[in-house]
Amino acid sequence: MITSKLPNVGTTIFTTMSQLAAETGALNLSQGFPDFDGPLALREALARHVMAGHNQYAPMTGLPALREQVAVKVRSLYGRNACADREITISPGATQAIFCAIQAVVRAGDEVIVFDPCYDSYEPAVQLAGGVCIHQPLTLPDFRIDWQRLADALTPRTRMIVLNTPHNPSGALIESSELDRLAELIRGRDIYLLSDEVYEHLVFDGRAHASVLRHDELYQRAFVVSSFGKTYHVTGWKTGYVVAPPALTDELRKVHQYVSFTAVTPLQWALADFMAGHPEHIVELPAFYQAKRDLFCDLLAGSRLRFERAAGTYFQLIDYSAIRPDLDDVAMAQWLTREHGVASIPISVFYQRPPQGLRLVRFCFAKREETLRQAAERLCAI
Ligand SMILES: Cc1ncc(COP(=O)(O)O)c(C=O)c1O
């Protein structure tokens, strides 16, 4: 008999709902990935580099050309002069980067503060490091940090705080004034930050992304993580990066070196080429996804579903209490998939202790116009 190191981990809700969508033939607006392809020039670049023989190990820290492109990007977007050699590491996906950052600094008995509802990869990584997650609920209905509660939760064992902005599943954004507040709160304490910014370019209505990279004081203790998969519509490429000050980067790389050693070589070449040749891609991304959000929301305006348009990410939360207040969100997501052919994600699964009476499901709008139209038509008919 094996005693599990992760007894509470089972099949994730993303796998469950995607499987149910496939079995029932439902439109899959559950898991967070596009149903359209990444840019042709990016895919062609990958084919070219594979054929050109770029198929052996890349340097452990990442291909220099790609690290340089990330340096250019963070300088132009966030004014941070991060050194491509000492502060930027390419990872095989943001998930791996998150795992490595946590292993690098969290020790047995340490506490890591996460804000619920939170992405599901943080807690297992903390547990494997011997730490424990302290779950702080975000306020409802607007999913903001409760500052008094956070202040009260800090102890001498607090080693890390995990931020996620734009926030999955709510789409909420952390404001730059909140980063100042956080800096004040943890000043003089031995606390690191993990800032999960994989949706950094998906910020709507003219708002700005308050990256920790912009914040000099917080950056000194931060691992800032992003994902090329999200930014370039190629989630299956599982390639991301971490920006962190040199001392933290050194520790992160010690872990990364033995978790995966490096990221996939031709993917890194293709991304470096595409970033250099198509700087407009990230500039156009907010409008691209905002149009999808607005199409989906406009089409749902006549339905009995209620929502506030997401400020960021490619997820839209929907309150279904006017339709089936009797169903909890897990039952509702299943009912919607089986009976109405649209798969979503219940958000209670992102909580340690879901608030009573939560009647919200999450739809992913990173979908083609026809998928969004069909989904909305089905939802409006309920
Ligand atoms: C908040 C958040 N962090 C990290 C990831 C993982 O990104 P990647 O696919 O690059 O590992 C996701 C993917 O859904 C996410 O939503």
Automatic annotation (TrEMBL):
<dbReference type="InterPro" id="IPR015421">
    <property type="entry name" value="PyrdxlP-dep_Trfase_major"/>
</dbReference>
<dbReference type="InterPro" id="IPR051326">
    <property type="entry name" value="Kynurenine-oxoglutarate_AT"/>
</dbReference>
<keyword id="KW-0032">Aminotransferase</keyword>
<dbReference type="InterPro" id="IPR004839">
    <property type="entry name" value="Aminotransferase_I/II_large"/>
</dbReference>
<dbReference type="Pfam" id="PF00155">
    <property type="entry name" value="Aminotran_1_2"/>
</dbReference>
<keyword id="KW-0808">Transferase</keyword>
<keyword id="KW-0663">Pyridoxal phosphate</keyword>
<comment type="similarity">
    <text>Belongs to the class-I pyridoxal-phosphate-dependent aminotransferase family.</text>
</comment>
<dbReference type="InterPro" id="IPR015422">
    <property type="entry name" value="PyrdxlP-dep_Trfase_small"/>
</dbReference>
<protein>
    <submittedName>
        <fullName>Aminotransferase</fullName>
    </submittedName>
</protein>
<dbReference type="GO" id="GO:0005737">
    <property type="term" value="C:cytoplasm"/>
</dbReference>
<dbReference type="InterPro" id="IPR015424">
    <property type="entry name" value="PyrdxlP-dep_Trfase"/>
</dbReference>
<dbReference type="GO" id="GO:0016212">
    <property type="term" value="F:kynurenine-oxoglutarate transaminase activity"/>
</dbReference>
<feature type="domain" description="Aminotransferase class I/classII large">
    <location>
        <begin position="27"/>
        <end position="379"/>
    </location>
</feature>
<dbReference type="GO" id="GO:0030170">
    <property type="term" value="F:pyridoxal phosphate binding"/>
</dbReference>
